[in-house]
């Protein structure tokens, strides 16, 4: 179940209450007249089934509540209520299959912002990947995959394309366009310092039969893995199965490829640098394409292709 709170002018309270009373997926309706201070008005709360949330939010946004007041939605971990159970049973569909589009837009919008935290995580992840490449350590490579924050902007690009929110596409693309070159540059500087200090030399990646060669080896499986990971990641973000995202992070070689680009450039391994860059590009494109395809299919399955969303 989700907790919905609406802040609205007193004159609009009856319309909000009517929407919630009429929907079978809403329960435990609470009306607090005059409780809102700024903007002044009423506060209305309810528990809503996840599969009903998108429809209810669209109806309330249609009343203009998101402009004259505000709407918020948050997850409730534990609900002990027969009425809530009945609301979930009456709401059409399954909770795990429901897409709360406003929540998805908010989540991807937040994770797609270019900020210091995003850059720091991406730089650290690329540095870890470089260490994994130099030491031929798959464990360190996996650690870099998990630390990397790049799936957020990639999901943002996919959501923005499908929902025609090009402001989100621009924001997410900017994060990727600035983040990866900066992370590669910092990692290259670190690799240059390590090489100059004698910590490693060209033999670290020269030759064959390294355990981490998959990072730069480009082939059909690179695209297949990227597509599957992108599909799984978007399914996870649009459903209640968020734990699956960890598996997605470990599947793709975006950050490891970026780390390999930096190390190969410093060691003069230009062919491997080019292959790693191609691996990075294939993974980025494959993830976005698969994530967008999943969103299109889920939107059509839900029958809400033309449902308007409030601008964010």
From TrEMBL:
<protein>
    <submittedName>
        <fullName>Membrane protein</fullName>
    </submittedName>
</protein>
<dbReference type="InterPro" id="IPR005240">
    <property type="entry name" value="DUF389"/>
</dbReference>
<dbReference type="Pfam" id="PF04087">
    <property type="entry name" value="DUF389"/>
</dbReference>
<feature type="transmembrane region" description="Helical">
    <location>
        <begin position="243"/>
        <end position="270"/>
    </location>
</feature>
<feature type="transmembrane region" description="Helical">
    <location>
        <begin position="114"/>
        <end position="135"/>
    </location>
</feature>
<feature type="transmembrane region" description="Helical">
    <location>
        <begin position="214"/>
        <end position="236"/>
    </location>
</feature>
<keyword id="KW-0472">Membrane</keyword>
<feature type="transmembrane region" description="Helical">
    <location>
        <begin position="276"/>
        <end position="297"/>
    </location>
</feature>
<keyword id="KW-0812">Transmembrane</keyword>
<keyword id="KW-1133">Transmembrane helix</keyword>
<feature type="transmembrane region" description="Helical">
    <location>
        <begin position="174"/>
        <end position="194"/>
    </location>
</feature>
<feature type="transmembrane region" description="Helical">
    <location>
        <begin position="141"/>
        <end position="162"/>
    </location>
</feature>
